[in-house]
Structures are given as structure tokens and as C-alpha cells.
Amino acid sequence: NQTPEMETDKDMTALSQTITVLLVYFGENQQWERVTEVISYTKRIRFKLNVIQFTALINVHGKANQFDQVVEVFEEMKRSGVEPNNVSCCSLIASLTKSSDPHHAELLMEVWSLLRNRTPEMESDTD
Description:
This protein has helices at residues 4-28, 32-44, 51-63, 67-79, 86-96, 102-118. The chain has 127 residues and is an all-alpha fold. Helix 1 runs antiparallel to helix 2, helix 1 (4-28) runs parallel beside helix 3 (51-63) and helix 5 (86-96) runs antiparallel to helix 6. The protein is globular and about 40 Å long.
């Protein structure tokens, strides 16, 4: 017998996975209106995106060279209280290295600094 709480946890996990899959699918197929619909739905039901979902959004916007959206997603992640992890930071860096906007370069340096402070073992032996 499963308790109602366990069913709720399973439901939330399934919902979270579904949202991630939809964001990636619609983003990779550049169906931005659908991405917006999914985001609107999460806000309507008060579902808080997690670091995986924010990172997925960073990736799909980056692949589409939508650099301002990459920055907006990253900023929204921080505003919502979700701590960027190494993967989300690396995704941001990979996305923005294709941009020629000097403001993006500033953010790249900020994120690079965050990563270096977080993972000192990334420094090479020749530094």
C-alpha cells in the first residue's frame, strides 16, 4: 500500500520530468510559443522550475542563438532562488561564447569566476 504522500511525490516527479521533456522538445524544434505555454502553465500551477529545467532552457535558446533569452533564463533562475550548478554555468558559457555582445562577455567572465571559485581543481598545472 502506498500512502497518498508517496503518490504525490511520484506525481510531482512525473510532472517535473514531463515539463523538462516538453521544454527540450519544443525548444529544439524552435516552437517558442509552445515553450511559453509550458512556462505559463508552470506559473499558473505554481510549479517551481528546477536547475535541470532552467539548464534545458539555456541550452535550447543557446542552440537557437537567442543570446538575450539565454541571459534572461539564467537571471530568472537566480531570481527564483535556484542556484546555478556547474552544468548550468557551463551551458551558459557554451551558449554565450557565440555572441558578440560585450554585455554577454561581462556575464561570461562573472560565471567563469563563479566556476573557478567553486571548483579550484579546474585550474591547470601550468597556471
